[in-house]
Design brief:
This protein is mainly alpha-helical. It has one domain (14-44, 52-103). It has two helices and three strands. A hairpin with a 5-residue loop joins β2 and β3 (102-103). α1 (16-42) packs antiparallel against α2.
Length: 109
Amino acid sequence: MTLCCLICESKAVLSQEAANAAVLLIGTIDSFLFGVRQVHTQGLEVTPETRPESLLVQLLDLIGESVSSATSGYTAMTAFAKDVQKYQFGHYDYLCLRCGARFDRNADI
């Protein structure tokens, strides 16, 4: 059963759990890409004499730094996700993205 807004009957309703997952996903991707940019600006030198093994090592370093950046950004995103839950949802479970109404699943219609 699709949940609809109690006021405007829109189906664009976001649960607190879905908002939390979206914030953490977006934050993790942003931190990962930030790590990639930092390693990229440090400069990877590729010359004709570069051995394929060293390119693989550079790629693994890039991935390692990016994952490290993503995990360090997770703490900040967790705090932001708590703020979203506190200020956008309050003590309610759902938020209508159309009209901004907040409500619980077992609210009377």
